[in-house]
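Q: What residues go here?
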């Protein structure tokens, strides 16, 4: 019996899956079977291979996908290694006549898919590429003059005005599967989970992984949070965000499903909270638009003058203090500890911690980007790079260079005392004012809270006024040279 292959990538779901939908339709029309395939190809990704937190998530997401496929009469064939060699091998093993897969966003993966498709074409095997990861494919949202866009707000406006977002595809009821499928590794063979030590306890407590968990989380957000999201998203002590980012990154949930769920929930008249939420979804689209235009965005500043920015050279000790949540600024340290424990950080705190690293400490943004990529369960190449460049001031749509987040006043403004107490328990007895700046607290207050600076909690790496001044001086230096 003839066979077609459905190659999964960052689209680890069954519902609203254009490539799987097309593969099943093609197989049923031709009396063929479908081989669902996943390949772990770390070498092709190079330095952007998945970090430890993402690998933990991937293990559980693949497990969920395989169980879902089994309920439909199929299974997931798993291989590890060079996809450019493995795909032809699977084609030869199965006699496959076509490869169905999803659009890629990462430059390395796009190039790899292009080479695979060209190779298969020479063997009369056609590659069908569907738009699964995006609302609109990169390059499809243009300015009035027909040019590609580099500023977020007009990009969002044009995307929404453009329309043309496809409907949600129905979930398949069964999958025609070969009686004798190709040999497969087990998910455990991929060795994705941490061992010696197993540091994933915090991730296990914080997350439920998989397609059903993603859909449940979306519905909970719409029912409980969406109406006030525009306010609550800035308050880290609250459960005020969607926490959908890892589900979206791994494709357990499509942006198309999110878009239509928002529109259906609101009667196609989104509230202010849902409008802001859709902006966050479209920011991800914009990030991939930038990455498509500038494939070196994860490594090089989009504003060329930043190639001469006077970053520090002797920063490794301060970088480690930032990574460990030991900077002496409680809001920064709470965020970094939340990240390491749960693989996630509140978005407002992401901006503040990134600003502190790049502006107070003058540490290159690429160092923070790499740390986030290794420790985030939603480590998305495009969104991570775009976010870091935005905060550092070197992105295409960057924050004004003079904006330096104050980690003391930000904590007060957004009622983050509960957040700090959770992640910096050594400070939990401090009052709501002192908890964001224990270094300014009177000795009697510190004594009453059982805090000795330098013993229980570190002194600050730098004062906020000094950090802000050196950041502005550095920006002035490249501004005068341009």
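A:
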């Amino acid at each position: 019996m003839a066979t077609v292959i459905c190659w999964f990538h960052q689209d680890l779901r069954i519902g609203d899956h254009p490539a799987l939908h097309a593969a099943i339709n093609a197989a049923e029309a031709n009396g063929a079977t479908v081989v669902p395939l996943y390949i772990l190809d770390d070498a092709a990704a190079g330095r952007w291979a998945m970090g430890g937190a993402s690998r933990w998530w991937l293990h559980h997401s693949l497990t969920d996908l395989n169980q879902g496929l089994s309920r439909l009469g199929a299974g997931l064939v798993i291989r590890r290694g060079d996809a450019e060699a493995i795909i032809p091998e699977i084609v030869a093993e199965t006699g496959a006549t076509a490869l169905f897969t999803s659009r890629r966003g990462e430059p390395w993966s796009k190039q790899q898919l292009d080479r695979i498709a060209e190779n298969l074409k020479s063997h009369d095997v056609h590659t069908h590429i569907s738009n699964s990861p995006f609302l609109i494919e990169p390059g499809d949202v243009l300015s009035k003059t027909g040019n590609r866009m580099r500023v977020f707000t007009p990009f969002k406006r044009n995307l929404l005005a453009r329309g043309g977002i496809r409907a949600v595809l129905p979930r398949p009821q069964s999958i025609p599967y070969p009686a004798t499928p190709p040999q497969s590794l087990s998910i455990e063979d991929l060795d994705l989970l941490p061992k010696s030590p197993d540091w994933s306890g915090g991730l296990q407590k914080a997350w439920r992984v998989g397609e059903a968990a993603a859909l449940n989380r979306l519905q909970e957000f719409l029912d409980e949070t969406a109406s006030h999201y525009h306010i609550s998203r800035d308050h880290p002590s609250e459960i005020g965000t969607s926490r959908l980012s890892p589900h979206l990154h791994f494709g357990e949930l499509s942006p198309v499903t999110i878009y239509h769920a928002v529109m259906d929930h609101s009667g196609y008249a989104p509230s202010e909270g849902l409008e802001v939420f859709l902006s966050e979804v479209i920011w991800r689209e914009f990030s991939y638009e930038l990455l498509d235009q500038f494939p070196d965005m994860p490594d090089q500043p989009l504003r060329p003058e930043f190639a001469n920015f006077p970053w520090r050279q002797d920063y490794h000790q301060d970088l480690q203090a930032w990574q460990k949540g030991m900077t002496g600024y409680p809001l920064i340290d709470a965020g970094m500890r939340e990240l390491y424990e749960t693989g996630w950080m509140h978005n407002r705190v992401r901006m503040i911690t990134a600003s502190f690293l790049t502006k107070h400490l003058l540490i290159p943004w690429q160092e923070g980007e790499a740390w986030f990529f290794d420790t985030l369960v939603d480590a998305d190449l495009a969104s991570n790079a775009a976010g870091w460049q935005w905060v550092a001031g070197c992105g295409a749509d960057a924050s004004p260079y003079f904006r330096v987040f104050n980690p003391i006043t930000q904590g007060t403004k957004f009622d983050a005392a509960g957040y700090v107490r959770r992640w910096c328990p050594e400070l939990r007895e401090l009052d709501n004012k002192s908890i964001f700046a224990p270094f300014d607290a009177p000795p009697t207050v510190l004594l009453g809270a059982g805090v000795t600076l330098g013993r229980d909690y570190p002194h600050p790496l730098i004062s906020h006024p000094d950090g802000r001044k050196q950041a502005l001086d550095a920006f002035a230096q490249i501004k005068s040279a341009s």
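A: Context that may help when evaluating the design: The two ends are 65 Å apart (CA to CA). The mean pLDDT is 96.
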